[in-house]
Every structure is written in structure tokens, then in C-alpha cells.
């Protein structure tokens, strides 16, 4: 588990602890938070660290007393009117990826500046630079980013068994998190409350909303003022998420008519993507994946690049090749930012709680995908009157909009506002359709697997309108 002993000595600034943390020395409080006044690397003037132009609180909430499991959060107050603006609880995808990805690459008010950075110049206390992000969703809401499940980002357990979680148990821990967090922040009890997430988190969000709505129905206190939820390029657990890659790739000119016809003829039915039924289908799917991987499946307009989340712990991420700088340099920088002791001090990370920070723990911690399909939860909470926005970056081949559009239609809600363009600055920003039960589906033109990463301006406009109850 520990990092390679072959590291140069000057990299010892990065804590060389195993990635499975031990119980930190401080006594476990139910809730422990602090206000971050300066973010390491954030430098508005260019010569010395400035106070950050938004209010940021970080902290921990204990969600499993038996195992001393604590979830870490970043709470960015709205830059508009925090007393009245909605609160958005935001989860990130990849079932064990750090929510710091969402802060820096998606909807947070700060981004990594893609300046040249030499990780070996540690004597200067050199850190990757951060810059203000003008299209952060904190323009319209306060955003509570949570590292979930336990083992993602800076969330940890004092006992190895605390890491044995899955979709259902992690959702119930989030519900506990929320109830404790809101009790600790009673000023926010009346603010409209929304839950959002993309990719794999899109599978968790409707279930979590469903569980909270049950508490609300039962009158369990403290209750957030839950209004609805939003999910981007969301997984459902259904085979349609993956099966739709084939018609999508065909429509986008990635595979030939012939290959498409072979797959349709020999693969047939459901779940052929991950479970080819016969040798011809298996051969065709192998060819399909080779062709899809000629580019980036998260955004078919981009280059094929290896992301740091594909690299296992114990290895410093390699510097990205020139043709991948624009896409993956941020993923390279975030590793050095999060593993620096100056950063951890500033964020209030408990000493000894997490060794090497990884953007994603791919498969090195157990996780059970025990929600097989979340479509019934989408149906149940929207039928109860909670608002829903389902949006898809239209250049995503990982969870293509075709699959998402298919299951949204399968709910059989009648159409209130038929398919039309929505606009930013007078130009189409994508297309949208609104159904009964306050359910809106929208595509984001040019967006990839995490739409706000590629089209931040369009996504902020979409979010602002939706959260203000305006048509897109």
C-alpha cells in the first residue's frame, strides 16, 4: 500500500503513509470544522497569497460511530445572497473519486491554473497555482461538496472495516451527514435544498433524495428544505447506460454502418455491451472499443489521453504528453496540490487520517454496487413533486445522451414543453424538453462526460435558470 521507496528525498514532503489511514490522534468529534481564509496557491495579485474572494468552510462529520468513519466536506457560501440562495449538496462520480475534482474541474469557484509547475522545486515551497473561476455555481447557490463514500478524497475510517460500503450504505451515511450538518448550521434550515451529482453519483442522487423524502414524510427532524435534484450524464445501473454507446458512436461517425449492423444483428437484446452473447458479438464489441478509444470517450472531440485516475497508488503521476496538456494537466497538478502539507494544514485535514491523496481509488478499496437500477427512485421522487433536471453533455460517449433520453422517456410522463433549443447569448446552447412532475431533460452543446468541465458558461446559465424556477 505504501508509496514506492524509490522516491527522491525531496518528495518526502508528501506524507509517505499507506493509503489506508489509521485512526487520527485527535478525539473524534461529531462535527469539526474550520474557516479557510487563504488557499495555498491562490494568488489574485500575482505576487503574494490573497484572501480568497469567497467564504469557504471545511470540516468532518462522523457518519459511522462503530468504525469512526468521517466524511470530509468543502462548503462554499453563495457569492450572491447566502441567507436566501439555495444550497446544493454536490457529489462527484467514479464511485470513489474525490469531490475536489468537482471543485476544481466542474462547478467550484476556483480552478487550477495550467502554469508550468516543477514538482521537484519543493525547496521553494512551490505549489500549483489556483485561479478564480467566473462560472462557478456559487454564483447562484451555496455548494456543499462532500467526499463520499468513506475512502474518497479526505474522508476516512479509523477501522479498515469502515471502508466496506456500497451504494446503499454510502447513501445512508450521506443522509446521516446531512442531518448532522444541518443541525450544526441551523441558519440554513429554511434555504431551498437541492442534491446534485454527475456520472456514477447520478446513480446515488435519486436514491438519497428518496430516503430523505421518506424522513420528511415521517416528520423526522432536522429536515432540510428539499426542493429537488439534478444529475449530469448520470448512471442508472441499467444496461441502457452502456448499450447506448453503440448507436451513439454510429451516429457520430466513429463506427461504420457494417460494424453497427453486425452488432445489432448478433448482439441483440439488453446488456450486450458488458456481456457479449456469442463469439461474433464479442469480436464486434472488441473492434467497437478499439475504434471508440481512438479518441477520448468522455468527449469525442478530444484526444485519447491517460488520466491520472487510471494510475494506481504509489506512483507519482507522469507528466502528460504535449497533446494531452490541455486535457490532463489539471489532473497532474491536483495530485501535487492535495498531497502537500501546506495544503493539508490550510484545509484542516486531520493528521494521520489519509496518506497519499488520490483523485480516484480505482478498485483498491472494496465497494458494492448494490443499487441495480435507480429509475424507480427517479419516478418516486418526481411523482412526489420534487423538481428534477437531467442534463447530458452531447459529446459524451461514456454515458451518451441517447441512453439517458431513453430512460427519461420510459417514465411515461406527458410532455409539457416539447423539444426545443435553449440559448446563451442568443445562440443555441443545447436542446431541452420538459415533462410533467417538474422533470426537465437538457443537452449541453459541446459538453462531455462532465458537462461543466467543457462548457462552464452554458452550464452555469442552465443551472441559474433552473434553480430560479425559470425555463431554460
Automatic annotation (TrEMBL):
Residues 1-19 form the signal peptide. The keyword Signal applies. One of its GO terms (molecular function) is serine-type carboxypeptidase activity. This is Uncharacterized protein. Belongs to the peptidase S10 family. Pfam families: Peptidase_S10 (PF00450). Keywords: Signal. It comes from the Eukaryota. PANTHER family: CARBOXYPEPTIDASE, SERINE PROTEASE FAMILY S10 SERINE CARBOXYPEPTIDASE.
